[in-house]
Protein 1
Amino acid sequence: MPTYDPTAEQKFTFGLWTVGNTGRDPFGGPVRDQLSPVEIVRLLGEVGAYGVNYHDNDLYPIDATPAEVDQILRDFKQALRDTGLKVPMATTNLFTDPIFKDGAFTSNDARVRAYALQKVIRSMDIGVDLGAALYVLWGGREGTETDASKNPQDSLKRMRDALNFLCEYIIEQGYDLRLALEAKPNEPRSDIYLPTTGAMLGFINTLDHPEMVGVNPEVAHEHMAGLNFAHAVAQAWDAGKLFHIDLNDQLFGRYDQDFRFGSVMIKQNFFLVKFLEDVGYSGSRHYDAHAYRTEDYEGVKDFARGCMRTYMILREKARQFNQDAEIQALLQEIHADDGAHSYLNGGYSSDAVSRLRNETFDRVGISQRGLPYERLDQLTMELLLGVR
């Protein structure tokens, strides 16, 4: 009988802002008391998480004095030692404070852009001290409500300049740190620059140090745009840029719901988990999700355990899929290849062109071949529904 308990191998992590979310939304105030970072770490230790991630101001207030920050960090480090939790990733809040109302790196105000850089490098120093090897950047305010306000090409240049600056800082400091960019199409801004994972991948190639920068795709953010998240993850993996991943759940076309992983889009999340497990993804599996507003902190623990348990269940389902004789026979039939065109596997050559020019294809006959995708999908559903 398989176990669905979390394992250190899976590197399940949660942000301070996730299990520490008080349930406040645009239409209602908090329903849970605010926990301290230490209390959140202890909660995550109790539910079996591997690690904890944070924005700088999840950990210490934006206006904290150096002495206050030092004390908070001492307490936080002690909680990490007590629970054994790791800090694989850190990030900076560049969206909550009013100074970022027009963006951070892309703000029209040079003072804001400079402050954003200062805030990030200070946060990076602390993140590295806590053991983070990855730094995520989500530009929640990097966008517009009216394109009259900004030239998008100027904004992309400002973003590029900021990331080049940060990469040079990492190199000069000798930090073992990589950057991961997180895309989102909208909310809180009407239009956010670089709105999809694919857009981020294209942008990374324009940087001075593209090898230092990858992506942090999030289920909800791609689903908000009605896109196939597993396809975005596969593209990032193929490019060697899947540095981190944010797991949650989300209905297509809605506001950013951040539901418990696997709670609404079961088949989509199955193929995501199957992909990650099949290719051997070894990074953190980070949950950027929130418990329902209905929950107290016992319910928050249920939420956190549920995120991890669902991943482990889908992981087992992926193993079953790969070992199911009927499913694998169908896949073998679908991918049948007599090797007649293996001469194209090596790429372009004049000999390949010559052979291709002289080949005769039975266009009608080939088109009449049935592909049993209906049966394959039904078997997949039966496996997921537990009747296989």
Protein 2
Amino acid sequence: MVYTSRTEEIMGLDALLTADEIAWRDKARTFSLERIQPQIDEDFEIQRLREELIPELGELGMLGMHINGYGCSGANAVSYGLVCYELEAVDTSWRTHVSVLGSLAMSSIAKFGSEEQKQEWLPAMARGEKAGCFGLTEPHGGSDPSNMKTTAVLDGDEWVINGAKRWIGIANIADVAIIWAQTDDAVRGFIVPTSTPGYVATPIAGKLSMRASIQCAIELTNVRIPKENMLPLAKGLGAPFKCLTEARYGIIWGVMGAARAVMDVAIERSQTREVFGKPIGAMQITQAKLADAFLEYEKGMLLSLHIGHMKDAGTLKHEQVSVGKLNNVREAIGIVSSMRSIMGGDGVTNEFPMMRHMMNLESVRTYEGTDEVHALVVGRALTGIEAFR
């Protein structure tokens, strides 16, 4: 039997979804609860990525699921959002993996690759037999990818790539990396098999967040790839930004999954823990915290649905993605913090998921565009004035 969420029941979420969307959600929920949740606290503690689960995600059709053809599911945007929602309800790391594999690496090839590149890589990636990563962010650049120092120089029939990337998800286990580099005319994307000499991915140590995931520093030293490995339709930073928009869309939904998970735990705790002779849920201040959290959760879910419907209709603008990412991450962090307080001291232990979600969400607040960057995107849309520089 599929787990039933009290918050979803009160919101009436199912009435807003199609039967197919509910089926995707329930499939992702079952996988998350049965295959990820039983070991997630240990995975987080010892910083373990269970890469053996990636083919299972492929079998379920969840890798590149928004892509049509090439063995991909061709699901609608709301269905993809609901999968992200369920994965992040257990842990951010697994929503991130699906995002890196599908929304970034696979989308790069699907959007900008040649037919030969699509046929070579996408079916195997959709099955989870091959994994890909996405190398855009650089150590010095952060939120400013226009300051790109990685270069690609054409030498006969080969591109020679030199540079460095940082905070690149699963770069050490990926079979292929989509590397963005400056050429003599524009930023271009390149398909780089990770077995290529000169490619070195080193996991970043000391993380206190997203510990069931792997982010790496990549060094590219005279990496030589065939001329035909360039993505022919990708020219300029607009290309990787389109892939980032896909990934940010998943975040909008995912963080609401984290919010729902901690709310459901706090609701159950409020009904069973007694102090001063009655359940803490009978205290007005506890009910006020739960009510405030629920209001922001429901608004965040309605915003996710609105953005998903625009994406399905082909009317979604990138500033709306910024609205969703900025609002939902901000509110999810507030919800988790408030729900942690309801748990008292137990809320900081690994008996409950509050602190793990809280630490993970701090990473989500930072990657795929910081709060500040998305605020400036929205501000530019409202005023027509560029304020980044």
